[in-house]
Amino acid sequence: MTVHSQGAATSAPQDAPPKSAGRPKAPTTAPGSSHPVPPRGGRKSLPSGWLPYLLIGPAILSLAVLLLYPLIKNVILSFQDINKVEFIQRKYPFAGFDNYTELLGDSTFWTVVVRSFAFTLANVALIMALGSLIGILLNRLGKWMRLVLSMALVMAWAMPIVASVQVFQWLFDEQFGVMNWVMRTVGFSGYDRHNWFETGLSTLTIVTILVVWGSIPFVALNMYAGLTTVGGELYEAARMDGANGWQTFWKIVFPNLKPFFLITTFLEVIWVFKAFTQVYAMKKGGPDRASEILPVFAYVEGQSQAHYGLAAAISVLTIVILVIVMSFYFRLILKQEEEQ
Amino acid sequence: MRPGSVVKNVGALLLALVFVFPVYWMFSSALKPADQMLTKDPVFVFTPTMDNFAKATGVTNFWTYVTNSVLVTVGAVVLALLVALAASFAIARMKFKGRKGLVLTVMMAQMAPWEVMVIAMYMIARDGEMLNSLPLLTAIYFVMILPFTIWTLRGFIAAVPVTLEEAAQIDGCTRGQAFRKVIFPLLAPGLMSTSLFGFITAWNEFAMVLILNKDKTAQTLPLWLTEFMTAFGNDWGATMAASSLFAVPVLLIFVFLQRKAVGGMTSGAVKG
Question: Bias category Polar residues: which stretches (chain A) (predicted)?
Answer without folding.
Answer: 1-13
